[in-house]
Every structure is written in structure tokens, then in C-alpha cells.
Specification:
Structural class of chain A: alpha/beta
Number of strands of chain B: 7
Structural class of chain B: alpha/beta
CATH architecture of the largest domain in chain A: 3-Layer(aba) Sandwich
Shape of chain A: globular
Strand order of the largest sheet of chain B: 1-2-3-7-6
Shape of chain B: globular
CATH superfamily of the largest domain in chain A: Thiamin diphosphate (ThDP)-binding fold, Pyr/PP domains
Number of strands of chain A: 14
Radius of gyration of chain A: 19 Å
CATH class of the largest domain in chain A: Alpha Beta
Number of helices of chain B: 10
Strand order of the largest sheet of chain A: 3-2-4-5-7-6-12
Oligomer: heterodimer
Number of domains of chain A: 2
Number of domains of chain B: 1
CATH architecture of chain B: 3-Layer(aba) Sandwich
Helix content of chain B: 40-55%
Largest sheet of chain A: 7 strands, mixed
Strand content of chain B: 5-15%
Number of helices of chain A: 12
């Protein structure tokens, strides 16, 4: 097996912020006592005047970000996904989402991959929560390149954006991302029997699943849906039409996330079997990230099984 | 304060109260008690303090006002209309389908509204963010926020208070409208926020007391608050919920109840007669 480079997307986030800060004086960064783990410390060291540590107070973090945005700055409000989307949900909804303020929410440590900290810190509901806010763009990059492209694209977009990054290193799956656009999914691999639509840390396992399926004579298409909202409807309808079965894959609850978004998109337009790989309706627990992925069914092998099931359903 | 100036402010405040009454009666919905308690303060702010331009409501160097107690929107809308941000006729569409005058202030729809509010406890955070933005960009605008006293029960207010003091936001002044009543009754019986002044001083704020219905008192408090350097300031104004309408004064039941036609007529008569009496 060839050696692939790995990097946590939160590292990419921190580096991207630093680069943005050098280019654009309107970029300001807020954190809630997690500038080490979220990697915003890189920005803070270089631009202390444009960095605001709110301390452990996420409601205020989001409100301050709203105020900063209302004055023409581009705030990136950073904390763990649990506290960004969960703790401060109503502040995000009413102070940022409803007035459509230009706040970028940089949520790191998303999903059960957070690992040892356990269920209290494993946010598997953020896509559902953020997706339900009208006008909110929801993004979950798959690797280093995509995370950096997403941060740049979010800064260039006028309006609120929720960006989810991961704690653990993930393989770099892209060679280049020229022409990256929010809302436009990427086809990582062509295939005709089934489509795997993955986001974030499940994109690499999805590619691995396609390789395993190929060995069994099954041709799987792999889509990288870095933008969960607005979802790439065109790409999905095309995949549904051409492959006739879809499997979604995400480090998120099967309720309300990418799987739900795909079902919502297809059910009224081109209904095909859709099976969802994600965390079933339960909380996480402590353990290493890869152990949890095995325990909760978020591996290439699980995706393979679901693909075979979906193909069987297609054949009726 | 010169008598002529005071009379002018009193006349404006009286007009704001009439506008509030008309809005809530026309909508058959809205929060009249807490609107009437801040009419003098809004008259003073828009007449004497705020550097704003109705012709260019979004200019970057303007002063900002965040009505954190967003349910007092009728009073804010009246003040904005009287200041010329939009036609007074719009007031009669308050809370009606298709009107820009939403139940709670909406910065995207209403000229002159600097922050969308209504969910209590969030305004000081936004105001602090604006004040931080002023420090970062080097603009010398001031930021004001008006809070209810019951609103102080929201934890987010104290998160924001801590940060504002920590960052020395002397371009921020918060006005606490201490009318003493919230929906469930007197604030000190529901869940007492007192002593408000000592709590904020302990957080690092300068606190000034004012009589919310005396312009000389408001003038003194605003002058002193705006002269503070190195820390945020607060004007703790003692006010009367329902001020100006005798049967609404100091009654929690007038928090969110619209007046009947008879009550409306009686209230309008009282407000219209004020000034000719005594």
C-alpha cells in the first residue's frame, strides 16, 4: 500500500487562518479557551490585536462574533463542535443565522473521532442542528487541501458558514483542488453500480470501500460532499440516475446529517435506495478514534456491506 | 439642562409614548409596559447622544444602539420614525404580515436597527463585539445597549460583562432599565438580580444611577458614563413600567397585553393631556 500523508483538518484550519490573516485585515478570530486544540493560536500569535479569547463562554463568543461581523469584519468563531453547534445553538440561530451575519464558525473536534474524551465531547448532531438554520452553509472538509480551500471559500462568501474540522489526522486524498466551490461536490472515483456519498473523515474510508468492492467485481462511484448545505443536488441526481443506489457515510448521527440531506434531495426527485453509514441513534463513548469507528460501524468494511445491501435493494 | 431643551425632550418622549400606544393597539399585540419605561431614555439618546444619520443608516462610523430587551421594539420603532429613519405611517403596520416592523427588532429589514434582538440576554455580547470592532479598526464610535432588569437573569449577560471589562471597552455603555417587573412578577420575587450596581462594579464596570424619567438625571448619568476611560460603563436607571399611563404603571400584567379599545382611548387621553396639566 502506498504511503499517504496524513494531517488533522484542525491543523489545516489554523494554517489557513494564518494565511488569511496575512492577506485580509478584516479577518478576526475568536476562541473560547481552546486556541491550542483549535489551532487558532497560530493566528493569535501573529495577529494579537485581531484575536479575541472569550474564555469559556460560548454563548458570548457567538454574540461577539455577530457584533464584529455587523461592523464589517470577518470573524471566525472557534471552539469544539459540541460547544459551537450545541451549547451556543440558539445564539448561532438568533444572533448570526437570522440576521444573516457574516460569521464563520470554525468548529473543531467534530464527530466520535474525538475519541478518549467520550460522549460529552463527541458532537454527532452538529450537521443536523446547523442545517436546520435557514441560510446557513454547512461544510465538512475531507482532508488538508480541502480544509484550506473551504476556509478560503468561506471567507469569500458573504453570510454565515459552519465549518467542521476533525481532531485526528486523516489521509490527504486530493492532489489539487483548483476550482473548489462550496456547494459543489467532487467525484473522487467513477463507478456505475452504486454511489458512496461521503463527507469529512469518511471520504478516505469510502475510497477504500470502493477499492474493496472493485476486487469483488462491483463498480462504486465515490462522491466527496464537503458541503452538506447547500447540498449538490445536481451531482446527487446524476449519481442516483446512473448508479441507482446510494450509500452515505459520515461521522455524525444517522439522524439529520448528510444521510438525511441526501434522502431529502432524492425522495422527491429521483427515489432510489439510500442506506446510511453513521452513528446509529446513540451516544459515543471513550476509546481511540479508529477503535470507535470500528465499534460504531464507520469503516470501509461497513460501507462495503451497505453498498452490497443497497445494490440488492435496487435489484428488488 | 436648559428649560427649552427639557421641554423639547419631554414633548418628544410624550410623542413616543403615543406612538407606542398606537402601535400596540393597532397590532393588538406587543409589549407596552417595558416600551413605556424606556421612552425618555430613547428620546434622550436619539435627540442628544447618538451620532447617526437617517439618510445613511449604515455608515461605518455611526454610534450603535442594541436594544437587548427587544420586546420594547414599539418604543425603538417610534424613536427611529421620529428621527426620520422611516415614515411614521409605517408604525401602524407594526407586527402585521408584510411589514418591516417585525415583533422584535430586525436589522436586515429596518433602517436604523443595528442588531437583531428579541431573545433575551444576547444584546450585550453583540454590543461588546461592536465595541471590540471599534477598537480593532480605530473608529471612535460608541456602542449603547439597553437591557431589562429581568434579563440580567440570563447567564450570557455576565459572560459578556466579564469580557467587556477584561478588554477595557470604554466605548461601551449599557443601560439597565430597572422597572422592577418581569412577566411572572417583581424581579426580586422571581429571582432577584439585586444589587445590580455592586455586581457590575465587582465585574469591573463603572455604574451610574439615573432616574429614567428625569432628563437632567439622564443627562448627568450619560455625561459621566461617556467620560469613563479604561472600562465599560453602566447607567442603572430606575424606571416605571407602563410610565405615562396611570392604570398601566407598575403593573406586571401590562408586560405583553395590548389595550382594549376603551383602555386605548383612556390611555391616549392621558398622554394627550400631559403637559397641559399642572
Amino acid at each position: 500500500m502506498e504511503m499517504t500523508k496524513s494531517k488533522a483538518t484542525r491543523e489545516s484550519y489554523g494554517e489557513a487562518l494564518l494565511a488569511l490573516g496575512q492577506e485580509n485585515e478584516r479577518v478576526v478570530v475568536l476562541d473560547a479557551d481552546l486556541s491550542g486544540p483549535t489551532k487558532t493560536a497560530l493566528f493569535a500569535r501573529e495577529f494579537p490585536r485581531r484575536f479575541v479569547d472569550c474564555g469559556i463562554a460560548e454563548a458570548n463568543l457567538m454574540g461577539c462574533a455577530a457584533g464584529l461581523a455587523s461592523c464589517g469584519l470577518i470573524p471566525f468563531a472557534s471552539t469544539f463542535a459540541m460547544f459551537a453547534a450545541g451549547r451556543a445553538y440558539e445564539q448561532v440561530r438568533n444572533s448570526i443565522g437570522y440576521p444573516r451575519l457574516n460569521v464563520k464558525i470554525g468548529a473543531t473536534h467534530g464527530g466520535i473521532a474525538v475519541g478518549e474524551d467520550g460522549a460529552t465531547h463527541q458532537c454527532i448532531e452538529d450537521f443536523a442542528l446547523m442545517r436546520a438554520i435557514p441560510g446557513m452553509t454547512v461544510v465538512c472538509p475531507a482532508d488538508d487541501l480541502e480544509a484550506k480551500a473551504a476556509v478560503r471559500a468561506a471567507a469569500a462568501l458573504e453570510g454565515p458558514v459552519y465549518l467542521r474540522f476533525g481532531r485526528d489526522p486523516v489521509p490527504v486524498i486530493h492532489e489539487s483542488l483548483e476550482g473548489f466551490r462550496l456547494g459543489k461536490g467532487l467525484t473522487l472515483r467513477q463507478g456505475k453500480d452504486v454511489t458512496i456519498a461521503a463527507t469529512g473523515s469518511l471520504a478516505a474510508p469510502a475510497l477504500e470501500a470502493a477499492r474493496l468492492l472493485e476486487a469483488r467485481g462491483v463498480s462504486a462511484r465515490v462522491l466527496d460532499l464537503h458541503t452538506i448545505k447547500p447540498i449538490d443536488r445536481e451531482l446527487l441526481l446524476q449519481a442516483a440516475g446512473e448508479t441507482g443506489a446510494i450509500v452515505t457515510a459520515e461521522d455524525h448521527s444517522v439522524i439529520g446529517g448528510l444521510g438525511s440531506a441526501v434522502c431529502e434531495t432524492l425522495s422527491g426527485a429521483r427515489p432510489v435506495p439510500v442506506l446510511r453509514v453513521g452513528v446509529e441513534d446513540r451516544f459515543g463513548m471513550s476509546g481511540r478514534g479508529e477503535e470507535l469507528y470500528r465499534a460504531y460501524g464507520l469503516t470501509a468494511e461497513h460501507i462495503v456491506e451497505k453498498c452490497l445491501d443497497a445494490i440488492a435493494m435496487k435489484r428488488g | 439642562m436648559q428649560e427649552k431643551e427639557q421641554k423639547k425632550l419631554e414633548e418628544l418622549a410624550r410623542q413616543l409614548r403615543i406612538d407606542v400606544l398606537e402601535e400596540v393597539h393597532s397590532a393588538r399585540s406587543g409589549h407596552i409596559g417595558g416600551s413605556l419605561s424606556i421612552c425618555d431614555t430613547l428620546a434622550y439618546l436619539y435627540q442628544r447622544v447618538l451620532r447617526v444619520d437617517p439618510a445613511d443608516p449604515r455608515r461605518e462610523d455611526r454610534d450603535r444602539l442594541v436594544l437587548s430587551k427587544g420586546h420594547a421594539s414599539p418604543a425603538l420603532y417610534a424613536a427611529l420614525a421620529e428621527r426620520g429613519f422611516f415614515p411614521r405611517e409605517e408604525l401602524k403596520n407594526f407586527r402585521k404580515l408584510g411589514s418591516v416592523l417585525q415583533g422584535h427588532p430586525d436589522m436586515k429589514r429596518i433602517p436604523g436597527v443595528d442588531m437583531t434582538t428579541g431573545s433575551l440576554g444576547q444584546g450585550v455580547s453583540a454590543a461588546a463585539g461592536m465595541a471590540i470592532a471599534g477598537k480593532i479598526t480605530g473608529r471612535d464610535y460608541r456602542v449603547f445597549a439597553i437591557l431589562g432588569d429581568g434579563e440580567l437573569q440570563e447567564g450570557q449577560v455576565w459572560e459578556a460583562a466579564m469580557l467587556a471589562a477584561h478588554r477595557g471597552l470604554d466605548n461601551l455603555t449599557v443601560i439597565v432599565d430597572n422597572n422592577g417587573l418581569q412577566i411572572d412578577g417583581p424581579v426580586d420575587q422571581v429571582n432577584s438580580p439585586y444589587p445590580i450596581d455592586e455586581k457590575f462594579r465587582a465585574f469591573g464596570w463603572e455604574v451610574f444611577h439615573a432616574d429614567a424619567h428625569s432628563f437632567p438625571s439622564l443627562e448627568e448619568a450619560f455625561d459621566r458614563a461617556m467620560a469613563v476611560t479604561g472600562r465599560p460603563s453602566m447607567i442603572l436607571q430606575r424606571s416605571v413600567k407602563g410610565k405615562g399611563v396611570s392604570f398601566m404603571e407598575n403593573k406586571a400584567s401590562w408586560h405583553g397585553t395590548p389595550p382594549s379599545d376603551e383602555e386605548y382611548a383612556a390611555a391616549l387621553a392621558e398622554l394627550s393631556n400631559t403637559g397641559r396639566e399642572a
